[in-house]
Write a structure and sequence with these properties.
The structure is a single chain. This protein is of the alpha+beta class. The chain has 2 domains: 107 residues, Trna Endonuclease, Chain: A, domain 1, CATH 3.40.1350.10; 162 residues, Jelly Rolls (Sandwich), CATH 2.60.120.1690. It is 22% helix and 36% strand. An 8-stranded antiparallel sheet has the order 7-10-11-12-16-15-14-13, with helices on both faces. Helix 2 runs parallel beside helix 3. The radius of gyration is 22 Å and the shape is elongated.
Amino acid sequence: MKINAAADLSDLWVRHDNWRLYEAYVVGTLKRAHPGLRVRPNVRRKGRKSGLLRQIDILVETPQITIALDCKCYRRKVDVKHVEAFLGMLADLGISLGILVTKVGYTKGALARARNDRRKISLEILSPDRLSKSQHIGAPLIWRGSLGIFLTCPDGWIVDTEKYDEGICNWLIAFYPLGFTLNSAVRHASFIYADIFLSNDRTLENFADMHEDNIRKDDPSASIERSATRIADERSVSRPALFRRARKGPDSFGSEYTLYVDYGKHVLMLVLLTTPESEADDSLIFELARKTFTMQVNDKRR
């Protein structure tokens, strides 16, 4: 899917048949509402009675309790057989608390079956409505001057064209996990932003030097490493690139991974910010860079 600024974006959200995105939406919503929780998608545990590996859509773990969530991205209401299957899995795994989440709702039989079981099971409706008009699912086009670059959104993430209200950076576009808002993602989630600069005869090292000055101002204790590399895009065009890893102190956001890619008269910058609790790593921005492709842009706006 290719999206530009003039496209109609009203239908670009979670469809009824896209269960993977719906699960990602539920994970992001939980993390946004409860930033301290350990929330893991697609967990497998061996059943105590069956001896089989059982798949749990989402597992929430605290020192006091374990909660299993089952997500149903259906067009119709969840019925009693789905509730019974979920209860059976909870019993097999020895998990006493479960939440069955759906987009639409539940039949009367499903509600009665859950209400009359000795285990604690909650039936919740979480409709993946748009959180803001700036959030989209798809492949956005960003541009500077005559260079346009299509970027592919990471799986389970969304695109946001809104400017961050605290002005930490004037990026062209941002990516973060589905279920978050822009402000909550900056504070509590892995977060990627992208920008394009005119090179004006500056090298990738020159750009890195300028940006590292800002990192040092924010955190003098940060440790910074650089390495030169090459990146081949979706059309197998290979370009020089510079990768930087900045590990910040315990009072700062976490780690910052930056990839600069040389496009001749332009430089693409991809920045990944991670929290100390985040499981994301630098492979995200390398994957993003490898899935890019370019086009010529004729932007006549003044």
